[in-house]
Amino acid sequence: MRAALLALALVAGCATQTSPPAPQPRLTWQDFHGIRLPLSNTDGPRTLDNDRAEGFARTQQGALLAALHIAVRASSHWGPAVFEPTITEQVTGPDADQLLEKSRTQYEESRQEAGLPPGSPLGKAFVDEEAYRWQTYTPDAATVDIVSAGPDPRGTTVRATTRVQVVWQNGDWRVVAPLGGDWGNAATELKSLDGYTRFEG
User: Fold this and answer.
1) For the chain, what is the domain count?
2) Are 104 and 76 in contact (CB under 8 A)?
3) Model confidence over 83-116: pLDDT tens digits?
4) What is the pTM of this model?
5) Is residue 184 in some structural domain?
């Protein structure tokens, strides 16, 4: 649960300008190991293969979808076949190497504790991506807060908001690695959705 709720990044430092929410084209939804993720036939991802997601439009919604899809897949929860190439190819910034090493360590510790064979995913997450709030957007860089929700051990719904920065590099959006390579530095508990825009559907 924690890995899924914290599977998004917090980074600042790229000069951007504020922007109001853009009109949101229609979204469809697809299950990713228990997490419902939004898709757009205009903004991406254009390629979904081997649990990877690539090819996002250079638009505000393309940046939003990239932030969500890439950061979720960079979690150690899904196993090295997913998080390693995601981080290596779709995450950038000075802390990207730390993120990869910490994800490997976290995965191995969790895998052994669960008694799973090497390379196995750690299980489903049962998390909903509920809402978002823009901080900044330009065609070169964007920062957005994303709200994830899921049950705690008592069955009560808990929410976390995570600030994600993406940058446009080599023809696609890339997530900037979280501070210190630790997703936990990115997320904070959220009590209210006031001020956030709910995802369609």
Assistant:
1) 1
2) yes
3) 999 999 999 999 999 999 999 999 999 999 999 9
4) 0.86
5) yes
